[in-house]
Amino acid sequence: MRITSLVSTLALLTALYGCGGADDAQSTNTGETKQMTAEPVKEDIGDLFADISLDETGNPAADKLLSPYDGPYQGVPHFDEMDLDGLKAALEAGMAKNLAEVEAIANNPEPPTFANTIVALEKSGDELGRVFTYWGIWSSNMSSPKFREIQGEMSPKLSEFFSKINQNEKLFARVKAVYESDVMDTLRPDQQRLVWLVYDGFASNGATLEGEAKERYAEINKRLATLHTDFANNVLADEENYVTYLSADQLSGLPESFVKAAAAAAESRGRAGEYAITNTRSSMDPFLTYSDERDLRETVWRTYYNRGDNGDEYDNNAIIAEILALRDERVKLLGYENYAAWRLQNRMAKTPDRALNLMEAVWPAATARVREEVAEMQAIVDAEGGGFEIAPWDYRYYMEKVRQAKYDLDSDEVKQYLQLDKLRDAMFFVAGELFNFSFTPITDGSVPVWHEDVKVWEVTDKSSGKHIGVWYLDPFARPGKRSGAWATGYRSHDTLDGIEKSVLSSNNSNFIKGAPGEPVLISWDDAETYFHEFGHALHALSSNVHYPTLNSGVRDYTEFQSQLLERWLSTDQVIDNYLVHYETGEPIPDELVAKIKAASTFNQGFATTEYLASALVDMRFHMSDPTGIDPDAFERETLEELGMPDELVMRHRSPHFGHIFSGEGYSAGYYGYMWADVLTADAAEAFAEAPGGFYDKEVAESLVDNLFRVRNAVDPAEAYIKFRGREAKIEALMRDRGFPVPGAETDNKTVD
Asked: Which pTM does this prediction carry?
């Protein structure tokens, strides 16, 4: 079990938002880098765990969750047999065995060594890790009232379990002894980084505390586990409970494909003959873009952006206030000024001020562009005699009118060429060209799935046919599935036991399933998100690390690889071969492609500002004194101070900002998308400048070798310099978004 991920694992168990699961995606590849192939040190831990057995549960369902994977591809999870009746017993048995393993390491009479301490920790916790796989499916893909009840009961117990490991004095003493010993100089670079990650994982999470401070730290973690779970479940409750149903006379302006999907969604909810606008972004966004009914646009907008903020039993404001107070108290026990300072110490940004400097450098250009966009939209409203000023529920609708007027580009026309299955094939093509991967569907039923919508593929090396892993795809929205898109995995790559592990990686989306036999058509933005999440899967599948912990990620870096993959959607090879009309099969016309590329920086004011608003509020939340905080008032006052335009809102308002309040994966870290986007824009220019463009073999090989395969075995800042030959610069981002490039002083500003 990856000891450095103890806290993030708990966050994963409570909820996964956005790309929250990317750090835990898994990997393998035939390529090897020099540092991975050096002569290994002794890694045999002998019979350290010989006397430790799994507790008898007396529960067949629990035994199944704990049992090794079986079947092909080195074994796959028993998703078709998972039973909630076994979850509690499985968790308890898995925790008991893992604690026994930890005690054996901590109490080993032999002097601490890299093998008997660090490697031993890497080899512990297998059974519990398998149970976490099923928990993640129930939490994110197949939630139910029964699971949420178990989740509420077990999350605090899991927090106590993690605290027992993090605060095990004997264990930390052994880890520290290895970290401070002369043997560090004899280890390979990846082994040295592993030792540092393990040591820092303890030191940054309370291992150095004593007495009452140690007890209070554990109490805070236990309470936070409950609060994170409650927050996520409240948001899910509002997403399930607030569905807007339309009649046939309320469909004006909506594309036929959307109408069919809304009819299917209503019928699946027992409302045949009506049309359901579900309370998720994938339903809200196209409705606000196309619906001619302004009053309904406002209704759908308010329903979506008020999730967790309705003053009822699912209201999250009091939960946010308590979370902020507890996080602040906890890090001050460790001696940090605020939560953000603690969170960023080992990120690429290093300090909150550096993260703020980046965001604040972009903010003026973004809001200035919003003013330009609003002026263009208001001119249309006035010309139509609308008699109103642009409101947040009007932005997408009139933005689309401006797009059509300015670029003669109709988003619905573009959607006719964006079929979900064809885009998946395009992603496979890109993976083949850049990574030499081949994807073959597995249709014989040998790989169990948790829902009939889930499909699986075997991933192999194109040249050698070598097995790499299995890729799962769960593309459609349904009740009990959280909103958004994310990547995760069920087994990571490592060679710790002398066997190269087969990777089990997964992508999950919330597209609206079409009527039977109808293709699923999506927007250009959704297509970019599809590629984005696939980038996380490729990062996982590419890994060649030796130790499980080195598959972990640095949050403001892990989004870079996925954001970069979005760029291949607009390459000629993808456009010419995979963007075909869903009815005629004709390729997308050259003139429409030209319009798409001409409009590539369109709406960047909206997109950048709504994101930055969320990232800035997140950072300010975690840099401020939370005493007596009113989250709604804090959000409002912070946005006023920033000069937030009235015509739009934060991408994620605080009461449903699951990235930062349903766990700690992105807390004080939502800025990371912008940090990663600087890397993305800079790296994209490396491809653009290469003789072979985005399919240049030399640049692609450097990208995969230096930035994908090494995962967290190399410091991200060093890895990027190896790829690019220098640090990334912000000017690439400004050019990429069509913003004015600052003067020479800012041109040379780097993010590393």
From this structure: 0.86
